[in-house]
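User: Is it possible to get a 3D structure for a protein together with its bound compound? The compound here is nicotinamide-adenine-dinucleotide. I've pasted both below.
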Amino acid sequence: MGKSEIGIGLVGSGFMGRCHANAFRSVSGLFDVQAEPRLRVLADINDEIARDAAQTLGFEQSTGDWATLVNDKGVDIVAITAPNIFHAPIAFAAIKAGKTVYCEKPLSTTAAIALEMTQAAEAAGIVTMVGFNFQRNPMIKLAREIITSGEIGEVTGFRGRHAENYMFDPNVPHSFRTDIQGGGALADIGSHIISMARYLLGPMAEVQADCRTIHPTRPKSHRTTERAAVEVDDMTHALVRFQSGVSGSLEANWAATARTMDLSWEITGTKGALAFTQERMNELAFWSGQPGRSGYTKIEAGPAHPPYGQFCPAPGHHLGFNDLKVIEVAELLAAHSGGVTCGPDFREAYEVQRTVEAMQQSHASRQWVCL
Ligand SMILES: NC(=O)c1ccc[n+]([C@@H]2O[C@H](COP(=O)([O-])OP(=O)(O)OC[C@H]3O[C@@H](n4cnc5c(N)ncnc54)[C@H](O)[C@@H]3O)[C@@H](O)[C@H]2O)c1
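Assistant: Yes, that's possible. Here is the predicted structure of the complex:
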């Protein structure tokens, strides 16, 4: 007997929409999923864009109206990859319709709305997942294991950064990423390093931040040279103190000239240390603290680090960014089919958004802010 099916509805077909579609298409060839994802409906901003994208990405139907997708009886999981402002209305409708909701980060435009989304999903018993895909890296899972096993001793410090260069040019126009509601480098990519820090070291207790706009104006859109003020941060630096007492620093920066994907961190302990950058995502740097062995040793990703072996039986052959999304989708499908939980869920994403807002409040007040 063939596997049963899970109907997928995808809203948005840009950078992340293509990544989600690829993951849903390939997951059952790599992971032992209980039910096969079936690409049912793709929604985008209008019928024409949706039709073209559905054809390219392999969806059976298309619509220019996301509500039609959400209420389609053949759709079991609603994947939201539209701009941030649409996450909440689509998620609320999907929760009401009893669908599993897989939403891109940041969960919403404010922590208050993110909390409402979380409470609605929890009250309805809905499976949720948010796209903090960098945590799916087997090297990150290994780092967490090393930390919790005590191999580096008691953690003494954290230094984290998510730096890219996609907004370093002042002529990159406004987009949803620069919306005053929920936009800015801190919300856009700072949310990734905050979620990573929480995954590795637990919740933060207090933060102090400095947010800076580097380019005061940008073109209003791709179609005009007319410029409008930028009201969000290009770069944020924060001091953080975790509930465990560990202190550290964190940076979000989308104008980091020359950097393409420096989601990186270093964690020191009383016995050893770990360091990572997404630019070399198949490596974890480890110092065991052994006398006479100063300097980091490279641990190379391989089948010893699940689920690397689902993709390749040989070490050193490397996973890529899109593979992280496949791992994420495999975990989502398992939770949708029942018996296991998955995360980061809406509640965890709300906590990340609350941390983003605490940093923004700290900048405004020039004070430490407790979470
Ligand atoms: N997890 C990650 O690593 C990661 C990376 C990039 C972006 N993101 C997140 O993914 C989301 C989308 O970002 P992107 O880079 O793919 O943006 P994008 O601009 O490339 O794509 C957005 C898509 O949504 C569509 N869209 C816009 N309004 C819509 C509407 N009303 N109804 C249906 N579709 C609509 C657009 O036409 C486009 O296809 C954002 O929330 C962003 O923060 C996550």
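The chain has a mean pLDDT of 97. The first strand starts at residue 4 and ends at 11.
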